[in-house]
Amino acid sequence: AKTVVVRWEDDKLTRLNMELADEKDLTAMKPYELRSYLDYAEDPDGCCTLAIHAEDPEALAGLDAGKLNRVNLARRTFMKPWQEYTMNDRVQWCVAAVPAPGWAAKVFPELPLDEAVEKLWTLIFDVCRVSTGDPVSAWQKHVAVTKARRDRMNELNLDRIHMTSGNGTDLTVGLAEDATWEGASSKAENGIEFIANVPTEEVFCAPHRERVNGIVYGTKPYAYNGQLIEGWHVTFKDGVVVEHGAEKNAALLAELLSTDENANRIGEIALVPASSPINRSGVLFFNTLFDENAACHIAFGAGYPTNIKGGSAMTREALLAKGLNNSAIHEDVMIGAPDTHVVGITKGGEKVSCNKAGAEAVGKEIARLAKEKSIEKVVFDRNGYLYHGKIKAVADGAREGGLEF
Ligand code: ZN
Ligand code: ZN
Predict the structure, then answer these.
(1) N vs C: which end of the chain shows fewer Cβ within 10 Å?
(2) pLDDT for 315-357, tens place per residue?
(3) Closest CA to 327 of 231, 210, 209, 244
């Protein structure tokens, strides 16, 4: 890199500020705060940003939720011109995380603090494919497999997604006009491919802001503004949340949904396979970057222009006309359960199991990767699972891809 600029934020300082400073001072943003990003973003040589989070999910617990939300809204609104750079992939950006004591204690409350931190390091390395010994090629394979899932979803030419779970979730998400599924890696304006989230397991798409209906139950606690929302649900009618509740911090959920006029609509729907290492770890991270990659999720607030064909060259008004939501927030919340059934309804009205379509695409890509290494015959070990459903779909996909069993 040419110049490396390090910015440091600290949970304790943030808490002191949020608690003791006046709201009018906290919301009075200074021009340099935005310029310090734009000066680099507008540089002809471009820039990359790497955000390394190490947050205590409850760093701001007990503080006035309304004040926190208003301060964060003012901040986000002021910083929106910079946010558009990342949301449109105009620059290369990446979000990753390392353990912090408060966070590790929340994930492993039964361990002494040192051990908890150590264990969180190991876990992060495991689920981020670092401990494979060859993370670069592990990630190349992972990107290839995720792209195969993304391409399969795009081939289906879906009109909407219908999600149901035993917990009562029954949600229909219509997709925006010219919506495209994305996943794994992105391409910046300068043509360089980059991975925006480490880890990332999802393929995601743009919902139509007016075509979301039904009820959905959260399946993991959600850390928002340094506090946890747990046991939540929302009901949508024509894209808008018309009813909501939570067992813990219901008022905070209400704050989130009323951040601005479009915070009560969604801007993302994402599918995550059960094979995700984060899901298989069985650990609840209390951190969206990880938890959103363990379960299917939706995001309240703005959608990504890159989820609309040609979208990054369009104005927000043109994107709105396609059904892409816009808001100061983009908050991913987890809604996938082990029994969640995801059905896609094509533009022609045909129903397709997305669980199966994804598994088939994975099988095919495995076959392609194996053939690259001149492997043509394999033994299929179903590892005690019934040869049925997704397991069969992986095998079918691999056979179609030319592998012999
Ligand atoms: Zn997502
Ligand atoms: Zn998201």
Answers:
(1) N
(2) 999 999 999 999 999 999 999 998 999 999 999 999 999 888 7
(3) 209
Per-residue HEC secondary structure of 186-197 comes to: EECCCCCEECCE
DSSP annotation of 15: H
Q: What whole-number distance in Å separates Cα of residue 378 and Cα of residue 113?
A: 45
Please provide the DSSP assignment of 33-48 as one string. HHHHHHHHHTSTT--E
The rounded Å distance from CA 269 to ligand 1 centre is 7
What pTM does this model have? 0.87
- What's the rounded Cα separation, in Å, for the pair 180 and 150? 9
- 247 CA distance to ligand 1 centroid (A)? 24
Q: In angstroms, rounded to a whole number, what is the distance separating the alpha carbons of residues 151 and 144?
A: 10
CA angle 95, 100, 104 (to 5 degrees): 110
Ligand 1 center to 85 CA (angstroms): 18
Ligand 1: centre distance to CA 293 (Å): 8
Q: Are 363 and 149 in contact (CB under 8 A)?
A: no
